[in-house]
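Anyone else keep sequences and structure tokens together like this?

Example one:
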Amino acid sequence: MDNQTEIHWSMRCILVDWLVQVHNRFGLLPETLYLTINYIDRFLSLKVVSLAKLQLVGATALFVAAKYEEINCPSVNEIVFMVDHSYSAEEIFKAERFMIGLLEFNLGWPGPMSFLRRTSKADDYDLETRTLAKYILEITIMDERFVGALPSWLAAAAHCLARKMLLKGEWTLAHINYSGYTLAQLRPAVNVLIECCRNPKEHHRAIYEKYCDRKYKKAALFVAEWITNVSI
């Protein structure tokens, strides 16, 4: 972000918050969201973007990521509708070609969801733990401190914190084996994640509102209550 002249971290947060809402409305896979953010951050590290084009970068990244991950991806007309016709279909296609070229066609990326699934094996894929971990993991896309962090580390930290909140016991040898990280290695990330959870409506409003839904077992409300009790 240091090379950007008009865009700051707060603007990235606004963009990602909007993308979370769009991603949710389309009902896309979690992998698509993480891949979208990966494309955006890589693109912004290579190209100076004006504020007027930032939403175009985000919409294009989602368009490309959906094509890579989804069976049924949004059409270009649906993307145009989601940006309120701020950009035309031709502009989206042109931006798509430019983005793919700038990324040198390196579109694959081992996102954190794959590592979360592997780590979950240590708990026999416990649904309660995994759902809570998915919420905690998604929070990381909103925070600049996690940009560039290893997805395996983020996934393990999210799973570790979920187990802590649910009183699931110690971080065992099985967890170390499947995640590749000891508790000591995860503590820095866990501490930052707890900090991120303290003001969810300011830090990650769209994600918070999404995970308040029964579909996600109201994970966001559970975390908010846990944070309140810990703070007392």
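And example two:
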Amino acid sequence: MAGIGLVVIGDEILSGKRQDRHLANLSRLLKARGLGLSWVRFLGDDPVILRQQLKQTLASGDQVFCCGGIGATPDDRTRQAAADVMGLPLVVHEEGRAILEALFGDQAYPNRIKMVEFPEGAQLLPNSFNGVPGFYLHQHYFMPGFPQMAEPMMAWALANPLGHLSGQHRLELAIRLIDGSEAEWIEVMEQLEARYPDARIFSLPHFDAQRRRSIEMGVEADPAIAETIIEHFKSVADERNQLWEDLVIQEPSA
């Protein structure tokens, strides 16, 4: 199956003025369907870089979610970059025109109408937040940079044009090792990875305010395999007299 990618666009993201939320939102929506992100890219509004990156993602064959840069102001350059790379003219989408006229009346002109200038042949991506649509074409799904708008648009795309995509349900389990050392667990992790190559086994160190160390040891895999691996972690910890506690992993909802 082709991969799934995310492109987050906006100078405000690169400058740190705004913190990205699209990655967490899309990851949660995908995980609820047994899917996952293959890659993510953060880009500014530079049209040259946008064209370079979109050329690569269009050639990849992946399903790509693009967030940001589709407004009507001069610094919103994603629509034009997409049209350039696709070799298509930007045209007013007639259904989009009707939506904007219904929303804004005469105030749709002369500027708001630019928000529905899409590459020719694009289909509308509904926006349940304020009604102003995004668009999709060639396995790329373009939506605003506002997370409260983009998240339901992602969900719609996954349920409709991408409704055929699904994966195996995977369970994530983890324990916290109190005052543990990652180096002591490398061999255990390597053995488990060799035995269960489809499992994602991970180790995440943490330090609290008093600089006390702990390690989150976990696995994401088929439920039966995940249970087996986490029980093995617990057994090894007990053999080593290593203190541990269960961590609660919240299952994502669609």
